[in-house]
């Protein structure tokens, strides 16, 4: 056991639309690569149930919106019936503990492995996780189909029992690829100007809102990062434009990733600030220091994280080596609860 320092958000209640949160610590979406053949497995019931708590908001690991949306091994999907059925007992287990559960939906876009190529590679801890095939620009006429995949995935998420969805618009995946000038080299209405580059993201938001209602929709954005080469020369303008445009749809929340986190591996300081976006967005803003704080790695290693913050207890250290392995227990459901730590040390 080790103590890892973190900004501790307050244990105070918060009204998130129709949801009554009893504290402001949100479980951030965490890909765990344990959904064999893209179907959530029964071991995920225990994993999410361990981390569920009364009035706590949790966001699921990213779930693919179609069979072409997937990029990493054994990540779950939400596009077919078998997956929806597999999510149901997981969602039920979170609800049984009084948790509020949103499904994060993604399409990885060019970070995909349609054909295995050697380059480029995505590495975690120096281990090659996945290799990607050369990207292909989507035809303008293909885009409505992808937008529709998000719409259907949102409907499926509701069918599975989720309380809402979070559209993954961050980290260099498809939506971010459209938004960022470093990747987007399109010459149609989805490329060029800031407005054009954000069009796809907003079409997805509109379709999902139309399908399940704005009160159940959040979006995650990361204007500052250049993951998977998705950089932008003016991330603040991009973030503010998105925040302002999102106001029109009255979605439940906007979840921005902090600029300090430039890569998944390391934290480094950047000169950027989320403040202009916080000011521009009229709904709930999720980020450390805002309305709600989403925590990833500490939630992964501390199933009872909000309780530990409440009583100022020491925290379990996370083990990076087991973040993405496929073992159904190790580094997944075997992180100790405070009671068992006390029990062992007594
Ligand atoms: C193992 C792991 C998996 C992640 N998977 C996702 C994901 O599926 N979707 C996403 O938006 N972010 C993902 N992230 C980013 C986290 O949600 C979070 O933003 C990041 O870990 C920073 O927060 P932290 O410092 O509290 O860990 C992942 C991070 C880690 C460490």
TrEMBL record:
Residues 15-289 form the NADH:flavin oxidoreductase/NADH oxidase N-terminal domain. Gene3D superfamilies: Aldolase class I (3.20.20.70). It comes from Papaver somniferum. Belongs to the NADH:flavin oxidoreductase/NADH oxidase family. One of its GO terms (molecular function) is oxidoreductase activity. This is NADH:flavin oxidoreductase/NADH oxidase N-terminal domain-containing protein. Its cofactor is FMN. Keywords: Flavoprotein, FMN, NADP, Oxidoreductase. Pfam families: Oxidored_FMN. CDD domains: OYE_like_FMN.
């Amino acid at each position: 056991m080790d103590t890892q320092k973190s900004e501790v958000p307050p244990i105070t209640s918060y009204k998130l639309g129709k949801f009554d949160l009893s504290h402001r610590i949100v479980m951030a979406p965490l890909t765990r690569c344990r959904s064999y053949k893209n179907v959530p497995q029964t071991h995920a019931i225990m994993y999410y149930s361990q981390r569920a708590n009364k009035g706590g908001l949790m966001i699921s690991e990213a779930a693919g919106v179609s069979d072409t949306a997937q990029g990493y091994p054994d990540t779950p999907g939400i596009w077919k019936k078998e997956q929806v059925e597999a999510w149901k007992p997981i969602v039920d287990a979170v609800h049984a503990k009084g948790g509020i559960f949103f499904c994060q939906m993604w399409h990885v876009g060019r970070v995909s492995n349609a054909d295995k190529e050697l380059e480029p590679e995505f590495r975690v801890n120096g281990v090659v996780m996945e290799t990607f095939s050369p990207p292909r620009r989507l035809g303008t006429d293909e885009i409505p189909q992808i937008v529709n995949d998000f719409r259907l995935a949102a409907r499926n998420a509701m069918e599975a029992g989720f309380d809402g969805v979070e559209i993954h618009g961050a980290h260099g995946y498809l939506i971010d690829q459209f938004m960022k000038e470093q990747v987007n080299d399109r010459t149609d209405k989805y490329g060029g100007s800031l407005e054009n580059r954000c069009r796809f993201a907003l079409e997805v938001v509109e379709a999902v809102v139309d399908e399940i209602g704005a009160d159940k929709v959040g979006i995650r954005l990361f204007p500052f990062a250049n993951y998977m080469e998705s950089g932008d020369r003016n991330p603040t303008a991009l973030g503010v434009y998105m925040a302002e445009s999102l106001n029109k749809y009255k979605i439940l929340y906007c979840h921005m990733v902090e600029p300090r986190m430039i890569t998944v591996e390391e934290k480094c300081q950047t000169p950027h600030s989320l403040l202009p976006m916080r000011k521009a967005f009229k709904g709930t803003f999720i980020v450390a220091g805002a309305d709600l704080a989403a925590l990833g790695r500490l939630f992964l290693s501390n199933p009872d994280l909000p309780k530990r913050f409440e009583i100022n207890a020491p925290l379990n250290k996370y083990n990076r080596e087991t973040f993405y392995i496929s073992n159904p227990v190790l580094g997944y459901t075997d992180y100790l609860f405070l009671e068992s730590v006390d029990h062992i040390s007594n």
